[in-house]
Amino acid sequence: MRIKRLLGIVTLANQLTFLRLVAVPFFVLSILSARFDIALALFIGAAVTDILDGLTARMLQQRTPLGAYLDPAADKLLMTAAFILMTDYPSMFKDIAMAARLPIWLSVLAISRDIFIVLIALLMYLAYGRTRFEPTLWGKLTTVAEALLIGVYLLANALGRTTIVLDIATWVTLALILYSGFHYLFHAARMVRDEGPEPSQPG
Q1: 13 neighbors 60 (Cβ within 8 angstroms)
Q2: How far is CA 83 from CA 51, 79, 89, 101, 162, in A?
Q3: The model's pTM
């Protein structure tokens, strides 16, 4: 019975997610070693496995509770590592040779937005027992924009030169981070109203 349960968890979709998790430390080491060509290859590989595990889960009916938690966790872990390591700090990571570094304000906003969403989901669970907090369209667009942003910065560092595309990607991502953050706030407020107690009837 335990073997059958284990096989139900270790699906092909979850194996692809595990592969992304395993890639994270190698991605970190690649950036710390200024091997941005390897980091870019790992990042692209992670994006491909992200698409494949989503398709596999839907087509083969392999969606599991474990996968529902691990899939976004693997994505956020990789993205957060990239934001932390590639940010233009006053003193940190200055020994890593980079042609382009992410603005510190953008990294702070991106990571703060993710923490904010997690806190909202936690509060909704504690207050109303809601276990699902579906991502919005703007949230998905922001995730795509952040992934493309990291990709172009990795490419710029791999090539050793900057381009105006970096500035465009930075400002587009900033706009989406701010808009989606406020959108999540209004979305959460609407859920609170829907989940709130019914108004008392006059006696």
Answers
A1: yes
A2: 21, 6, 11, 9, 18
A3: 0.80
* Domain presence at residue 78: no
Separation in Å, CA 182 to CA 105, 116, 148, 186: 17, 10, 22, 6
> What pLDDT digit, counting tens, does each position of 14-53 carry?
677 788 888 899 999 999 999 999 999 999 998 888 777 6
Which tokens is 46 given? 């992670």
One domain for residues 112 and 159: yes
77 lies in a domain? no
Distance CA 94, CA 30 (A): 15
Q: Which residue's entry shows tokens 């829907």?
A: 194
Which ranges constitute the DSSP H helices of the chain?
A: 2-9, 12-32, 36-59, 65-85, 104-128, 137-159, 164-195
Same domain, 36 and 132: no
Q: How many other C-beta atoms lie within 10 A of the C-beta of residue 66?
A: 15
Same domain, 63 and 91: no
Q: Which range of residues forms the domain containing residue 38?
A: 1-71
Residues 119, 185: contact at Cβ < 8 Å? no
In angstroms, the CA 75 to CA 152 distance is: 17
User: How large is the angle between the packed helices 36-59 and 12-32, nearest 10 degrees?
Assistant: 170
